[in-house]
Amino acid sequence: MQWLADPEIAQSNAFSEQGERPPSAADANLLDEYSVRVADVARRARSSVVHIRATKRKGGGQGSGFVFASDGFLLTNSHVVSGASSLEASFADGNGQRARLVGDDPGTDLAVLRLENSIGAALPLADSRSVVTGQIAIAVGNPLGFDFTVTAGIVSALARTMLGFGGRPIDDVIQTDVALNPGNSGGPLLDSRGRVIGVNTAMIPSAHGLAFAVASNTADWITSQLMRYGEVRRAFIGVQGGTVPLPRRWVLRSDWPANTGMRVEAVSAGAPAKQAGFEVGDIVVAVGQQRVEQVSDLLRLLGREAVGEPLEIKVLRPVAGVFREFILRVTPVQARR
Length: 337
Prior knowledge:
Blueprint: H1 7-17, H2 25-45, E1 49-56, E2 60-69, E3 73-76, H3 78-81, E4 84-91, E5 96-105, E6 110-115, E7 136-141, E8 149-163, E9 169-176, E10 188-190, E11 196-203, E12 211-215, H4 216-229, E13 235-236, E14 239-245, H5 248-254, E15 260-267, H6 272-276, E16 283-287, E17 290-291, H7 295-301, E18 311-319, E19 322-330, E20 333-334
Antiparallel strand pairs: 1-2, 1-4, 2-3, 3-6, 4-5, 5-6, 7-8, 7-10, 8-9, 9-12, 10-11, 11-12, 13-20, 14-15, 15-16, 16-17, 16-18, 18-19
């Protein structure tokens, strides 16, 4: 056995033998900057993230949540609080209080709670349209009962569709490689500036580096509905999809003021969209005079007021290698909860 007296020489020799260079000062500074960013986000989130304990008929459950409005409103997952007879929210400093359910939406696995006493700083919701693949993503939550756990990674993909609890598809989901475990559900997914880009909702237990969050723009619309009505009553046309870039040639030719739309990934049999002629591969770009740049735009435009109202939806459809415009006329029906 050979003992190395100088650790720096040992490190230099190890890198030389592997054909690699030792970390430079610039590399060290970059690592420090990353650490500073994550630590700063964790510090900001500390007074906003809560550990939620739900008392249910068959035992109980737990998850995470966070303050998103300064008057004591919390955002979490529907599956965390659904069916609970009582709810308690505890902050990192140990301050715990009862919370009541304002409303939940199983269709997006989101729920809004309100605290008995308005405390905790609100975390701002970011515009999820600005999220890009590869950017830093930071999760804060309470996995397996370990309060206020911080994990970090990157955004792996955008505009995913996944099956939520109860088999309902959730559109416009952000995929990350951030480490999540049971108990993280309902906690915030944050960018490097401490803004919420998504609500953590699921991970794949049998896989490593596969975690999912409901995009913040979807959460923003859902929370406004829950706070106003206590539920989300939406119109239904029967399509599933994700956000995609629009064909560049068509954007330039049409002078279209947006670069993304919603690609149709599935059309439900017998649904209004099927009857109207929607096809998989169509890209929805507008409903009437309103642009559709992402899935949350279509969700917003298919609110309760749209039930029974004929809509003209503009789509791009690939025909013989060229995208052509079509106007499809569809009348939404009331979505089942």
